[in-house]
Amino acid sequence: MPPPKAHDRLYGYQLGELPRGYSVEEGTIAPALGFEGGGKQFIFLNERGEMVSIAECIEKGILLEWIH
């Protein structure tokens, strides 16, 4: 995340249920833009192996959103 984005609103998500055929992959965030990295990142894939957007994950109940 670029430094200006660090002061934007914080979004948090709780994992709901994955639809049949969907999967989630987890990885470690690489260092970039002067930040150490090391955090966790998740990619949601549909039944065709295509990445699913956060908006679609919320719409399908995969992610339950809370905003700070």
Average residue pLDDT: 88
Q: Give the total of beta strands.
A: 4
Termini Cα gap: 18 Å
Number of helices: 1
**Strand line-up in the sheet with most strands:** 1-4
H/E element order = EEEHE
* Rg over CA atoms: 14 Å
| Low-confidence runs of at least 5 consecutive residues | none
- β-sheet strand percentage: 25-35%
- Structural class designation: mainly beta
Principal-axes shape call: globular
Largest sheet: 2 strands, antiparallel
> Which range best describes the helical content: under 10%, 10-25%, 25-40%, 40-55%, 55-70% or over 70%?
under 10%
Total count of domains: 1
What is the topology?
Layout: E1 11-15, E2 23-28, E3 40-45, H1 54-59, E4 63-67
Antiparallel strand pairs: 1-4, 2-3
Please explain how this structure is put together.
The chain is mainly beta and 68 residues long. The chain has one domain (3-67). It has one helix spanning 54-59, and strands spanning 11-15, 23-28, 40-45, 63-67. The strands form two sheets. The chain has a two-stranded antiparallel ribbon. A two-stranded antiparallel sheet has the order 2-3. The longest helix is centred in the C-terminal third of the chain and has 6 residues, at 54-59. The radius of gyration is 14 Å and the shape is globular.
Keywords summarizing the entry:
single chain, 68 residues, mainly beta, two-stranded antiparallel ribbon, 4 strands
